[in-house]
């Protein structure tokens, strides 16, 4: 039977509960345990798939096609395990399931209530992940902050789980902010005390307090938190702000977190094997070279909208001992200024995914600048479609080329809606989602990069290259280097005579790992360095 670790947060949002959970998962896996992770989000959306990137950040897509919270990206990158549809649950999904069961008569005429029906749905979801993965330990992060009204059913559900499985099989880890007041030169523990007291008032007694801080905690502060929050002093774990996220597991290990967890849960396992992780952190700290990469997108004001892309670019640099300096460029800026003014000095250009017409012409200008000036270019999802539109206009004689998404009446729609996406489909959960196979053309750059002829990558899109224009684009010099096995869908394009000009319809960033960079990002950063030197 799996054991359960529940991670909650108090005082303020954005403390890094996800990083703490992911780091603990990494440490427990390094001790030889099978680890599963999930996030429970209190918002009423069924999933984040239709939420604005400005509100929620990126949507992370799992291998089985779930549209999930960006924290799942941290879990996958740190723990190095593919997650699934049982790894993210929202209040919207809970109530959707409960109401559908009520309509089907599954409650046998009972009055449907938050307790036991809503909490029962949450518990079923938590238990289900442990059973599906056969995990030794399930780490569950509760989104939001203690005190939020919408979080209460989730907190009640995990309280009930602790009673059902026994406290020796369940552990509560609470992340709090311990602010440092420069005017008085001291840390303040009162916010943490109030947060823990509110949690205790819900029947949850935290076993471990993770204290988020910018300055090192004095021993007296730890003792004070332990006293007022009713935990052992060794169970107050300092989580200080660091230069790299990937240093956090090592810091938490030095503080004894994983040892305490294993002792409390009764795991008799060896010390963690962290040599590869220490080597990774060493490469990050000692990088002596650097490149500048422009990310030209629609949502660059919120960097979390492209979190996995940014991390994958950094991963590509780690393998070469290169620091990747990211330059965030709003695509609309390129509609009002010359691309050379904005992009001069960039060693590479990446255009990520996105939806809607705003800023599209700026992206096309960036793709043209990269193609004409030999700047390494990588287009992901929309970024690949942009590259095709630009090439069609300037090289294939299709001067009015566009996408049906932005110009529904276009007579030269080189990008069109996929056939199975036509009709009156609802917005949420209906795109081409999850892992799909792709065959790589022999002799292509991508075949060389991957070192194999067939791959599986994750998708999230409705539009594709129109087959009606494939021959004309190919005749003009565009190589379709990746295709679906039935050769109906274009999965990747490239320009053979360019130093590096690649577009992919899929999202390779979701499969990149800090100690095992995705091969395209690794090659892209290598091309950027070649241009710089």
Tally of discrete structural domains: 2
Q: Can you identify the CATH superfamily of the largest domain?
A: P-loop containing nucleotide triphosphate hydrolases
Report the end-to-end length measured between terminal Cα atoms.
Answer: 55 Å
Q: Work out the radius of gyration.
A: 25 Å
Describe the biggest sheet? 9 strands, mixed
If strands are numbered along the chain, what order do they take across the biggest sheet? 13-12-14-15-23-22-21-18-19
Number of strands: 23
Provide the helix percentage.
Answer: 25-40%
Named at the architecture level, the CATH assignment of the largest domain is 3-Layer(aba) Sandwich
Weakly predicted, low-confidence segments: none
Mean pLDDT: 96
Secondary structure blueprint with pairings:
Layout: E1 3-9, H1 17-30, E2 35-41, H2 53-56, E3 60-61, E4 67-68, H3 71-79, E5 88-90, H4 91-103, H5 114-133, E6 137-142, H6 152-165, E7 170-177, E8 180-181, E9 186-187, H7 190-201, E10 208-213, H8 219-229, E11 236-240, H9 248-254, H10 257-265, H11 275-285, E12 289-297, H12 307-318, E13 322-330, H13 339-343, E14 348-351, H14 360-373, E15 377-380, H15 382-395, E16 402-403, E17 413-417, E18 432-440, H16 445-450, E19 454-461, E20 463-465, H17 470-475, E21 479-483, E22 490-494, E23 501-504, H18 519-532
Parallel strand pairs: 1-6, 1-7, 2-5, 2-6, 7-10, 10-11, 12-13, 12-14, 14-15, 15-23, 16-17
Antiparallel strand pairs: 3-4, 8-9, 17-20, 18-19, 18-21, 21-22, 22-23
């Amino acid at each position: 039977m799996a054991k359960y670790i529940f991670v909650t947060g108090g005082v303020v949002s954005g403390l890094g509960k996800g990083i703490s959970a992911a780091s603990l998962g990494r440490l427990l896996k390094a001790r030889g345990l099978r680890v599963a992770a999930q996030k429970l989000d209190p918002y009423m959306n069924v999933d984040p798939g239709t939420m604005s990137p400005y509100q929620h950040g990126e949507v992370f897509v799992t291998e089985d096609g779930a549209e999930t919270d960006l924290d799942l990206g941290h879990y996958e990158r740190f723990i190095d395990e593919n997650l699934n549809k049982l790894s993210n649950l929202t209040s919207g999904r809970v109530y959707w399931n409960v109401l559908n069961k009520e309509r089907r008569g599954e409650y046998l005429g009972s009055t449907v209530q938050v307790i036991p029906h809503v909490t029962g749905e949450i518990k079923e979801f938590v238990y289900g992940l442990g059973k599906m993965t056969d995990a030794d330990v399930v780490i569950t992060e509760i989104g939001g902050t203690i005190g939020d009204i919408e979080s209460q059913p989730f907190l009640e559900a995990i309280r009930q789980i602790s009673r059902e499985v026994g406290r020796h099989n369940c552990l509560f880890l609470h992340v709090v902010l311990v602010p440092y007041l420069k005017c008085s030169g001291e840390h303040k523990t009162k916010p943490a005390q109030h947060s823990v007291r509110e949690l205790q008032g819900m029947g949850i007694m935290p076993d471990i307090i993770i204290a988020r801080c910018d300055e090192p905690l004095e021993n007296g502060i730890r003792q004070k938190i332990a006293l007022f929050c009713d935990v052992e002093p060794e169970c107050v774990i300092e989580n200080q702000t660091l230069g790299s996220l990937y240093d956090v597991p090592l810091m938490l290990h030095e503080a004894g977190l994983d040892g305490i967890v294993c002792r409390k849960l009764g795991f008799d396992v060896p010390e963690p094997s962290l040599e590869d992780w220490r080597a990774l952190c060493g490469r990050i700290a000692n990088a002596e070279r650097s490149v500048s990469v422009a990310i030209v997108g629609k949502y660059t004001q919120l960097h979390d909208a492209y979190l996995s892309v940014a991390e994958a670019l950094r991963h590509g640099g780690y393998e070469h001992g290169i620091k990747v300096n990211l330059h965030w460029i709003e695509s609309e800026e390129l509609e009002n200024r010359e691309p050379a003014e904005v992009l001069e000095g960039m060693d590479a250009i990446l255009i990520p995914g996105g939806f809607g017409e705003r800023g599209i012409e700026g992206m096309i200008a960036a793709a043209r600048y990269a193609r004409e000036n030999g700047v390494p270019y990588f287009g992901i999802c929309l970024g690949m479609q942009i590259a095709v539109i630009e090439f069609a206009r300037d090289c294939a004689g299709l001067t009015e080329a566009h996408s049906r998404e932005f110009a529904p009446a276009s007579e030269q729609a080189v990008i069109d809606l996929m056939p199975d996406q036509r009709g009156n489909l609802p917005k949420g959960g209906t795109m081409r989602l999850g892992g799909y196979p792709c065959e790589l053309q022999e002799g292509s750059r991508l075949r060389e990069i991957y070192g194999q002829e067939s791959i599986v990558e994750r998708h999230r899109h409705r539009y594709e290259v129109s087959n009606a224009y494939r021959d004309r684009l190919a005749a003009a010099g565009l190589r379709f280097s990746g295709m679906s096995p039935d050769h109906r869908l274009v999965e990747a394009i490239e320009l053979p005579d360019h130093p590096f000009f690649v577009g992919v319809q899929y999202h390779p960033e979701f499969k990149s790992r800090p100690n095992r960079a995705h091969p395209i990002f690794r090659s892209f950063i290598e091309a950027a360095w070649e241009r710089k030197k």
